[in-house]
Amino acid sequence: MKSLFEEMGGTYRQVGDYFIPDLVLPDDGEYQIGKYGRMRRSYLKEHRKILYTNYVVEGTLFKHLSEIDQACNERMENIVSTMAKQEGVTEALKAADQMEWVRRMNSIRNRAEEIILTGLVYA
After folding, report:
1. Residue spans of alpha helices (H) in the chain
2. What is the tens place of the pLDDT at every residue in 49-96?
3. Fewer CB within 10 Å, N or C, the chain?
4. Which has the closest alpha carbon to 111: 83, 72, 70?
5. DSSP, res 8
């Protein structure tokens, strides 16, 4: 009589007197999880424990975190460039008054990051 694991195509290897299932984790690829992926993982661990556990058990946590990280980075670039155009933060301003340009860009980046964190990371 086969076990459910064997019926689903699983195999075992014998180590001494014990049979150990041959389990393999999915390939995670070469992507390095960035700032937003790590923030999402911390949020899931602390506030959405069941969802985090489901991702871990299914082996899809890395994929989820990399998708979130990439989406956040893309949106950050788009939002910052759009806001900078709307507020007139240009290379001419940078050449004329560097400190004003830095102040405005920091303000834009902070607002854009707040939008991303509430929309993707902490959703």
Report:
1. 4-7, 35-47, 49-58, 61-86, 91-96, 98-116
2. 999 999 998 889 999 999 999 999 999 999 999 999 999 999 999 999
3. N
4. 83
5. T
